[in-house]
Design a protein that fits this description.
rod-shaped
């Protein structure tokens, strides 16, 4: 065999041995996530990388899974806040409706008390004139008249109290509306972070979608499935190449939720 061919043959054999050695000795990077976390579950389910390039991609994918996990945790917290918000809003609205009903009843009682008072005064004009003329005397007003006045004033106080309670309920309901708008804004932001993270995940390692979905819990799958289909369809064949390298690190940094 000519010398240059013999040299090339030995070089090819050396490269093959190197590749086999890499395949034999490559392992997953050390796991730093907590046991039971989405990252740990995905780490356990994902296949061992066969090449250095696959190992580097796996490391980047793990980072994105960590981002996905944090966003999912934020969405879970927001969902619980929405649940409490809805319950509190329902209780406050029910209390407002009860107050509306009570206010209508108090107004009806006040109108009835006023009618009785005015009827008595109309039927006892001379007693009214005399009592007003003797304004300084405690016993100037007949007992029946005083009782009707007391009843009307009590109804009037109840009406004013109910109106104040109604205003208080309305203030709380207005605040609930503001809180709901804020929660919806935070939820929309979290959904956008999730879509961005999953988009990078699918583009970087489409074959890792199976292991991720396999280890995701029911609530996690619900959030991921809501965003994943559009991510899969949007992932072009060359997107993984564009995300590889330093640009990926920048993308991962941008995807991290901002601290609160």
């Amino acid at each position: 065999m000519p010398l240059h061919l013999r040299h090339r043959h030995h070089l090819n054999l050396s490269r093959q041995r190197t590749r086999r050695s890499c395949r034999l000795h490559l392992s997953k990077p050390a796991l730093t996530a907590a046991d039971g976390s989405l990252v740990a579950r995905f780490y356990a389910a994902a296949p061992v990388p066969n090449t250095l390039e696959e190992r580097q991609v796996f490391i980047r994918v793990l980072k994105i899974v960590g981002i996905v996990e944090r966003v999912l945790a934020a969405l879970t917290v927001l969902a619980e806040r929405f649940r409490r918000h809805t319950e509190n809003y329902g209780r406050r609205m029910a209390a407002k409706l009860d107050t509306d009903y009570e206010l209508d009843a108090c107004r009806a009682q006040r109108a009835s008390a006023k009618e009785k008072l005015e009827r008595w005064m109309s039927n006892h004009k001379w007693q009214v004139v005399t009592a007003r003329a003797l304004r300084g005397s405690d016993g100037a007003k007949p007992d029946a008249w005083r009782a009707l006045i007391t009843q009307f004033e009590a109804c009037q106080r109840r009406v004013q109290s109910m109106k104040a309670t109604l205003r208080s309920h309305q203030v709380y309901l207005d605040n609930f509306a503001d809180d709901e708008a804020e929660l919806k804004g935070q939820q929309a932001e979290a959904h956008q972070r999730l879509r961005s993270a999953l988009g990078s995940f699918v583009a970087m390692s489409p074959e890792a979608v199976g292991p991720l979905m396999a280890v995701s819990q029911a609530d996690e799958c619900e959030w991921i499935n809501a965003a994943m289909p559009e991510m899969v369809s949007a992932a072009g064949p060359d997107l993984s190449t564009r995300l590889d390298g330093p640009e990926t690190e920048k993308a991962v940094a941008r995807l991290r939720p901002s601290p609160h």
